[in-house]
Design brief:
about 190 residues; 3-stranded parallel β-sheet; two-stranded antiparallel ribbon; about 35% helix
Amino acid sequence: MWLSLDLATAAPFGSRATVIGVAEDCSRVRTPILQAELAAEDGYFGERLAAGRAELVRVWRARAACLTPSPGGTDIIGAMQLGHELVVGPSRRPNRNVVVIFSEMRNAAAILNLETPHLESPDAMLRMLKRRTGIADLTGVTVYVIGANGGGKDIRDWQTIKRFWIACFRKAGARCAGYSTLIPLPTLAP
């Protein structure tokens, strides 16, 4: 996952931004890549909001310059658990929690491997996931998935993966407002 500069410059006042990297095993991730909060008020002429956005972009650029990809796996399920602990659980701001996932969405971890050929049905995968680890509580969260490409997989597998994630978000209590191979940034309104 990464923070788009377009998304950072569109964040409304009072927003909190948390960037979690999707690693091979997100249970080992102890801190987010970035955490920041914009002022609760935009200022008389919007100067506080503009300054906060500029600082968010500056800090993100500095952090992003040090990031390097690490092949081996993709633990989106673990990132959802971590997201609950770092973002959703502490805030519980009704109808204000937005999670944007920049990923191909092909979870490739011991708990669930969506890279395998001949995937099971979304319902079967959800039952297995619930037995093994449970599903993160994302109640009241709006999720946007962007960049979810097929990576050479059969279109039916891509559709199965999409149906799985939409069902997974629903089971977690979240609303999936967008799931696309493209990168259309969501509109973030206060």
